[in-house]
Amino acid sequence: MSLSTHEITIANELSISEKQVRTTIALLDEGATVPFISRYRKEMTGSLDEVQITTIRDRFQQLRDLDKRKEAVLKSINDQGKLTPELEQQLLGAETMASLEDIYLPYKPKRKTRAGVAREKGLQPLADLILAQEIGDFLPLADSLINEEKGVKNTEEALAGARDIIAEIIAEDATVRAKARAIFLEKSTFVSRVVPGKEEAALKYKDYYEWSEPLKNAPSHRVLAMRRGEKEELLYLDIDINEEEILPGIESIYIKGSNDAAAQVKLALVDSYKRLLKPSMETEIRVLTRQKADEEAIKVFADNVRQLLLAAPLGQKRLLAIDPGFRTGCKTVVLDEQGQLKENTAIFPHTGVNGLAEAKKTIQYLVSKYDIQAIAIGNGTAGRETEEFVRRLGLNNVTIVMVNESGASIYSASETAREEFPDQDVTVRGAVSIGRRLMDPLAELVKIDPKSIGVGQYQHDVDQNKLQTSLDDTVISCVNAVGVELNTASKQILS
Predict the structure, then answer these.
(1) Backbone angles phi and psi of 319, in degrees to 5
(2) In the chain, is it the N or the C terminus that has fewer CB atoms within a 10 Å radius of its CB?
């Protein structure tokens, strides 16, 4: 498809002008980011917002991918010598990847099938005669094709082979597949069962031991949970549907009368559905369900990251940051108004009376020495206990805040952290990161991969490439929305 055709498609889908689409695509191809285009090229795009620009970018990439696949399919069919002008127009006119693959399926190179074996036995003419349903008496032709050397020992074997061919024709019919796909999406049920004998190991999935609900209503978090259970071999997942929802629609396409040939076609049709079409649809619907769940979950994850990045900063305050721990103690650091490390130590408030008393003295001393205005406490292991300990000290005019410490350990071992604090160990770096997150969440969190922030329960179960793209977009959007202080900004936020 040409660029102008894609521009028309996207413009119609978004109810905007073709010029807006064309200009946006050109800017994106030049390397401009979505926030940059949204903020600084309004006069060129007609004031499109970030959501619209992102949609144009993603949709245009989909259409480009569809074009590449069409080229590969056309070449494959042409190399087989089976490409006709009509078929070429059908392929070029396919609007989705699914419809393109449906048209390609009969020509797609495949391993040996029952229909392929039947064709090798010379049973295609019999299949064609039966499928036409123009005459009821097809037995003479069936009898004439009996050939023990080819493996056709009797009339019934000839008929069985012909039905195999018809079954494959029906299962590969693009119209049948489109109709079946629509019905599966609308009428099927998502079913989960515990693997027999693994009830105890699967206790965390107890809600899904015997679970079913309409596929179209299944929320992403439930789909992701059940998929994880299946991956861990603790749950069986299935797509269930009443065949009476499907078969009448296929019969309306292929059954043309009530003679003996029609009866043979009906046998082939039922076999086609159970052996070929239903398994194929189940696989396809599972993929579509996964994609839908991934998209919904990734949106939630991106929203969570946005909330963390755009959390209100404490600002330039002198503060104490504590990375809590029980046995190993709480690493404690002092940061000045610019977030520079002034002093670090370790306290042990959870290891007995002596440790508690010494910890009190240390905190009180540091607060007094540096005129501390706020204390940041990581929310990980021993976080609540450490917060209670600090609050019981009764420090006047000192704000005490619990800080999300997800990813602090990732930062502390990173090259960025080593460059900032080459002479400090990872525990000190982690505590510094906790303190800086309170001062300026955005400036600190951009230093780590957004996936390391801990954006959602199932973030490792979704498409990682799509998740990375979405989170990167979110980070760029947040930085552009807030802006930076050039004199103090890190190279990570500037990049």
Answers:
(1) -145, 160
(2) C
- HSE, CB side, 13 Å, CA atoms: give it for residue 445: 32
CA 112, 116, 117, 120 torsion: positive or negative?
A: negative
- pTM of the prediction? 0.78
The CATH number that applies at residue 329 is 3.30.420.140
Dihedral sign for Cα atoms in the order 469, 470, 476, 479: negative
Rounded average pLDDT per 10-residue block, the chain, 495 residues: 80 94 95 90 94 94 95 95 94 93 92 93 96 90 92 94 97 95 94 95 94 93 93 95 94 92 96 96 93 92 89 92 94 95 95 92 96 95 95 94 87 84 90 93 84 77 90 87 60 52
Domain that holds residue 60: 3-107
What is the β-pairing status of strands 374-378 and 235-240? unpaired
Are both 99 and 130 inside the same structural domain? no
C-alpha–C-alpha distance, residues 6 and 19, integer Å: 12
Containing H/E element for 187? helix 174-187
Map tokens 């004439």 to a residue: 144
The H or E element containing residue 319 is strand 319-323
Residue 416 resides in a domain = yes
